[in-house]
Amino acid sequence: MKKAYAVIIRNGLILLVRRQGMPVWDLPGGELLPNENEREGMQRLIKELLSFDSKVEDLIGIYTKEYHDEITYVYKVQETISQSKMESQDYVAFNFFDIHNLPLNVFPDRHRQIKDYKTGRYPVRLRFKQNRILIRIENFIKQRKKEK
C-alpha cells in the first residue's frame, strides 16, 4: 500500500489536520490509488481533501515500516495561490502550528518526518522499527480471528 503526505508551510507555520474520531494531529494526505504516480497522487489528495490547488516541490523522504507492506512518501507542497481558502469534508479540524513548537498529540511517525523536513537534508530513506510486543499482539489477534 502506498501513501503520500504533504508538508505545507504558510508564513513559517506547518499545516496539521485531524480526522474524524482521531485525537491526534497529522499531515494532510492518505492512500494513493493503485498504479498512481506519487507526485500526481499527492496533488489529487490535496485537491480532494483540502479543496485547493498545489504544486509538489521536493521529496522529503520515503518511509517504510518493519513487517508491513506499506510505503509512505512525504513531499514539500506549495499552494499555487498564496493563502488559499481551505475546506474539507474529510478533516474535522485543520490548523497551522509553529514548526518548532508542535502540539503534543502529533501522530508519532510524523514527528520524525517533520524533523527530517526541518533539517533540510533530504530526501531521506528510513525504515521505522516496530515494537516486538505489538507484533506479537497483532499476530495473536490474527490467529484468534482465523480460529473463529
Would you mind describing this structure in some detail?
- The protein is an alpha/beta fold.
- The protein has one domain (2-147): Nucleoside Triphosphate Pyrophosphohydrolase, CATH 3.90.79.
- Helix content is 28%, strand content 36%.
- It contains three helices and seven strands, in the order E-E-E-H-E-E-E-H-E-H.
- The chain has helices spanning 38-50, 108-119, 132-147; strands spanning 2-10, 13-19, 29-31, 54-65, 71-79, 91-98, 124-128.
- Strands 1, 2, 3, 4, 5, 6 and 7 form a seven-stranded mixed β-sheet that branches.
- A hairpin with a 2-residue loop joins strand 1 and strand 2.
- It is globular, with a radius of gyration of 16 Å.
- The model has no long low-confidence stretch (mean pLDDT 87).
- It holds the Pfam family NUDIX.
CATH architecture: Alpha-Beta Complex
Number of domains: 1
Tally of individual helices: 3
- Strand content range: 35-45%
Rg from alpha-carbon coordinates: 16 Å
Shape: globular
Under the CATH scheme, which class?
Alpha Beta
Oligomeric grouping of the chains = single chain
pLDDT averaged residue by residue: 87
**CATH topology, which one?**
Nucleoside Triphosphate Pyrophosphohydrolase
Could you estimate the helical fraction of the residues in percent? 25-40%
N-to-C span: 27 Å
Order of helices and strands: EEEHEEEHEH
Helix and strand content put the structural class at: alpha/beta
For the largest beta-sheet, the strand count, sense and barrel status come to:
7 strands, mixed
Given as residue ranges, the uncertain stretches (5+ residues, pLDDT < 50) are none
